[in-house]
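Q: What would this chain look like folded?
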Amino acid sequence: MRDSHKVRLNRLFNTSGKCLDVAIDHGVFNEYSFLDGLENVEKVVHQLVDAGPDAIQMNYGQSDVLQTIPGKQKPALVMRTDTGNPYNPQTHRFMFNILQNSDEPILEALRMDAACVVVNLLLLPDEPELHRQTITNISRLRGACDKYGMPLMIEPLVMQGNSGRGGYMVDGDKTKIVPLVRQARELGADIIKADPTDHAEDYHEVIEAARCPVLVRGGGKADLREVFERSHAFLQQGAVGLVYGRNIYQHPNPKQIVKAFMALIHDDVTPDEAWAIYEGASA
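A: My prediction, written as structure tokens:
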């Protein structure tokens, strides 16, 4: 990796070489169900800064809340650069995913002193144009990131059709995830935020395809014990961290959850130990 990129990555990754990135960038995708727990952005951000994850993933319009907090001991900023409509419960006649700044795609990230930018690489059934759009976005970002020494996190996201529950759902098929992760790396990813596979024991194939640090992408809120179990399994397969949102910010006290996840990632505790940390914080 280029030395200029490493300068920023040193702010993103803990001295362990690992990272917990808490994603709160959901609002830009214009989906009501994503906003539960994010109604008061200032309150959420201050709770997360107090909780102390390695990074917070935000949009430009949120990032001022983090970056105007005084002091040096706060999470690094990972900035979302794109927006689209693939998460909505209905099928749209025109599916899109576009860069938020088409002229200077990382200008806002530079202005707000981000440590990294993130962008989607989408693969949805019968939507090849959407896939092409995201490749175009990545191609434009890659040049800007190289020019200014900004690390690029690509989020290869395989989705099922929305004919079932409404809204495109994550597809955990490794035969779809692995090739998309490989494509993300070969398009120039410095970091990959990858879907979990249906079977955690297959995740080493994702790691091998990436050839760069992999953070496991979270999803909807789930049973916490199960989340700890699956998170630990993916970390044991070679992932260097997690990007979780709703399983943290939708909790009544995010600090409790962050403490347990940080121990899973940085201290290699077991799921049972993580649960004990969570319960201890809850007491």
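Strands lie at 19-23, 55-58, 76-80, 82-84, 97-99, 116-123, 152-158, 191-194, 214-217, 241-244.
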